Amino acid sequence: MLVYDPVEKKTLSVEESIIDFPEKLPVHSERLLLTYPLVDLHTHVRLNSGEDYNSLERASIRGGFGVVNIQPNTNPPISNEGVLRHHKALSYGKKVLFLHTLSFFGEVSDLQAMQCNGISGWSTDGLSYHSEDLLEAFLTKKPALLFDHSQLHELPGDFYISSRLPNARRPYSNEAIAIFRTVTMGLEFGFTRFHIQHVSTAESLETIEYLRKKAKISCELTPHHCYFLPEMINHPDHKINPPISKDRDNLNDALRKGLIDILATDHAPHPEKPPTFQDAPYGSSHIEVALSVYLTVFEDFRLVIDRLTVAPLQVIGISFEDLGFRFPDDSILIDLNAEFSVDSSTFESKGKNCAFNGCILRGKLIGFRRKGRWVYWDGQFLEI
């Protein structure tokens, strides 16, 4: 069995007896990996009969995620202290630690003045806004880390024009222009820390590299953007925002080179999408298979684990120890050899809209351990 510590960047081969496993490990245990629980800085919860914190907790555990950062586009949005406290109450006491962002366009003006723990920053994600809204927010909000869904919402289109897909009216330059707008405008009003979500084009990467001379900028890659190309899109579950682009290989190379800082999921659950692209909402439900997508695409488990553990915590300026996680009492076990076909009908998530349905992936979570107790093992929840 392998043990990988992403904090110390050490890989060890150890005897199975050091950990009290629920049952005997399979014969190919040399390809089993014990490591830290994963961290996702980009997750959506729905409530109102949709994905709630109970189903999201189970889905997160099944995907190996012990820390999950919620975006503000709920109904109502997380835009004031009352709504935030409601979410904190619903997510309290779970095996998964839920952090929260606040709407950049809401009533709160100072995150540090909030009497709540576990606030990771401002966010524009999932919220439609124009330049005037952005300016007003920068004028009225106290600087803190800003998670930005960089998009010019005034320019419509579900897919990039070059993709030749239905309603392919979005300019390829849309995202890069929006990134430049957010960062340069923010700098003018004292904001210095920006996290650019789900980067989808090579042009955006070039823009980020230029702006890093002026501000502290991190960015993320999501499962659908590292796996799919426009010619692979054939189902409404592939309707993603930002759209799938031709630059998949550029994005993956940027992740390997460290130009993209972290991996995230952008888990966006919907019960079932309408059968047409036009009517379907954006998003894919896949927090349960995101790790497997990344292991399949990149094949280097150290790279994947680094970008799903320590790197995202560095973005928000915190450590596993700060959050109360102690390895190996808090850990996950992964079978690096396991292959399976994705079937969203078996998901714990209420979201069945998975872009990866039918895909053959390699690498699968076997167990999830929290505070010294196995919560999940080989398809079964032992606690919760």
Automatic annotation (TrEMBL):
It comes from the Bacteria. One of its GO terms (biological process) is purine nucleobase catabolic process. The keyword Disulfide bond does not apply. GO terms for molecular function: allantoinase activity; dihydroorotase activity. Keywords: Hydrolase. GO terms for cellular component: cytoplasm. It is an enzyme of class 3 (hydrolase). Its EC number is 3.5.2.3. This is Dihydroorotase. It comes from Fervidobacterium thailandense.
